[in-house]
Write a structure and sequence with these properties.
about 25% strand; binds zinc ion; alpha/beta; single chain; 8-stranded mixed sheet; 4-stranded antiparallel sheet
Length: about 600
């Protein structure tokens, strides 16, 4: 560590590639040897459509401009590939989607008219995890021409591909972007230009990038949605892991297809091509310093892509390549996975469409909004890397060391498939026109609602917030860490422009998750309505004191309550202002809407 001080000073001057003489090279566990059959997918030198990552021997990944230029060249040469802009990043970069279809579709109408099942895969939501982009470019090359080796894939399915979703993060390039990851050398950054994590934005829709892909999924009629990542987390033998939310979510029929038809085919095809597919949970240790404690489920919160997909009845798969496997192996595994998925869609896409229709027709009386562990852990067998603990001057205790040796171990898995909170599904939710930012998000999500063209009086239940604690800033928002309601019946006159959101619709579960004050993913909890927490009208002592005296004289029951409160709390008894506030709260002069959540419930 004697070089540490000098190295800190010249941090910005270090060579861009990490080598043996690089004091900041990440001391990663040993590289596993690998030579999978999928290597035959790599284009030979001189191939007219070799991709930039192949040219570089998978050491580097192309920049945004290089990627777009390569795709534009392919678009110009191929009548099966069309690039369409779907939005614009915060820094102004065009967000591109590539449409690959046998009929050369370039509009949503043409894709729908073809009637084939549609896969939308996105790469680079976390731009440092960019394997999907280079795999997608290879696959587009392989389907772009009638004589291309995988051209037949487009006979049965349409492929929509977003090569770089987080375009701004993608251009924040550094060899120090991902300390736990084996390449590429020029990886981008996790968050977007506002430092927002796009894979936490699916409910609140604050970012132009997620707004773009949420619109594209709806407009182009995607049947299946892949979100391509690379893990953090510990070492294990698998090179590619994937999964959907699970059968406990809002889309059990879709989940059956995802874990059955799709999951089985992906696993079979990856294994046949020399890869080691595994379950998502292996990236999610209970204790990252002690693998023996086992695994736990991925979070099921709808702010993430795949639980959001589950909530809106869209087959959504999270793919997590293993960060410690070399870049070439990860890209090739993703190529195999995408090809396999298109094949499954061609053969069994009708089953997915039927499952989707069944889940969209669900109208459960209770809508789950949070899950918790269901009890004892189950034991699972996993292909891991052997580990030991050694003393460490850095931790002051021990450190975890992976040896590189593949071992099979049985470890506990803590699944979180029991309902922790559920909402009794109301007939509808109401929201006044002043909450236009929330209404705008309902529209972007594709949720159907009625907008009043004249005032209407409605019998509702309203949530008066009892607990409403503003939590530390998270994803740019000061939301409510906790919220609990005292429900009150009320008659409200909603002005013109107010919206009524029925839950009897395909996206009813998503409406509940976004609108119900008890949902942890609600607009209320994300801080959209924090202004109702402030008290805005006051009373002076020279008015409140005589009024209080009159109240105590005229109402013996109130007087008894007041005296009991004084006797119970000497501090309260000694605080004149607090005594007046207590009395003021029991007058009709207080703000009737103070701490009332603006989303009202029609039972
Ligand atoms: Zn990620």
């Amino acid at each position: 560590m004697r070089f540490a001080f000098a190295a800190t000073l010249c941090l910005g001057l270090l060579a861009p590639t990490a080598g043996a003489d690089d004091p900041w090279a990440a001391p990663l566990p040993p590289v596993p040897a690998w030579s999978g059959a999928s290597r035959d997918r790599v284009a030979p030198a001189g191939h007219p459509w070799i991709t930039p990552a192949e040219v570089a021997g998978f050491r580097t990944t192309p920049s945004y401009d290089e990627t777009v230029a390569w795709l534009q060249r392919l678009d110009a040469a191929s009548d099966r590939v069309a690039m369409v802009p779907i939005g614009r990043s915060g820094e102004g970069r065009t967000l591109w989607m590539v449409v690959a279809s046998a009929q050369g579709a370039s509009t949503p109408e043409a894709v729908r008219a073809a009637g084939k099942p549609v896969l939308l895969a996105q790469a680079g939501i976390h731009a440092g995890e960019i394997d999907g982009k280079d795999a997608g470019l290879m696959l587009l090359r392989d389907v772009a021409f009638a004589a291309a080796p995988r051209a037949a894939l487009l006979e049965g399915a349409t492929f929509l591909f977003v090569p770089i979703l987080n375009a701004d993060g993608h251009e924040r390039v550094s060899p120090r972007s991902r300390i736990n990851q084996r390449g590429p050398e020029n990886a981008g950054w996790r968050t977007n230009a506002r430092n927002l994590n796009l894979n936490r934005d699916y409910t609140k829709l604050d970012t132009p990038e997620i707004r773009a892909v949420v619109a594209a999924l709806q407009q182009w009629g995607a049947d299946l949605y892949f979100d391509l990542h690379v893990t953090d987390g510990g070492d294990h033998a698998y090179d590619i892991t994937f999964g959907a939310l699970g059968p406990h979510g809002h889309s059990p029929a879709i989940d059956g297809w995802m874990s059955g038809a799709l999951g089985e085919a992906l696993t079979r095809d990856l294994a046949a091509a020399g890869h080691e597919p595994g379950p998502l949970y292996v990236a999610n240790w209970v204790d990252s310093r002690d693998p023996a404690k086992g695994f736990r489920d991925y979070p099921a919160s709808a702010r993430l892509s795949h639980p959001w997909g589950d909530t809106r009845h869209l087959g959504a798969l999270l793919v997590e390549n293993h960060s410690l496997k070399p870049y070439e192996r990860r890209v090739l595994g993703t190529h195999v996975l995408l090809e396999s998925a298109l094949r499954v869609l061609a053969e069994r896409g009708a089953e997915l469409k039927a499952a989707t229709a069944a889940d969209r027709a669900r109208r459960p009386a209770e809508v789950p909004v949070a899950w918790k562990p269901s009890g004892a852990a189950v034991e699972v067998e996993a292909r891991l890397i052997a580990w030991r603990h050694e003393p460490s001057a850095a931790t002051g205790g021990t450190k975890l060391v992976y040896t590189g040796e593949v071992v099979t171990r049985k470890l506990p898995l803590h699944t979180a498939d029991a309902v922790a909170a559920a909402v009794r599904r109301p007939r509808a939710y109401w929201l006044g026109p002043q909450w236009d930012d929330a209404i705008e998000r309902l529209r972007l999500q594709g949720i159907a609602f009625e907008t009043l063209d004249a005032p209407r009086e409605v019998a509702v239940e309203q949530c008066r917030l009892v607990e409403a604690e503003v939590a530390p800033v998270n994803e740019g928002r000061a939301g409510l860490g906790k919220a609990s309601c005292r429900w009150e019946p009320a008659t409200r006159r909603f002005p013109k422009g107010s919206v009524r959101v029925p839950t009897d619709q395909d996206l009813g579960a998503l409406a509940v998750v976004l609108l119900d004050p008890l949902s942890p993913e609600s607009f209320l909890r994300w801080g959209f309505f924090n202004s109702v927490l402030a008290r805005t009208e006051y009373v002076e002592e020279y008015v409140m004191a005589p009024l209080g005296e009159r109240m105590l004289e005229q109402d013996p029951k109130l007087r008894a309550e007041f005296e009991a409160a004084l006797a119970a709390d000497p501090k309260f008894a000694a605080d004149g202002d607090a005594r007046l506030r207590w009395l003021y709260a029991r007058t009709p002069w207080v703000d009737a809407l103070w701490r009332v959540a603006p989303v009202m419930v029609e039972r």
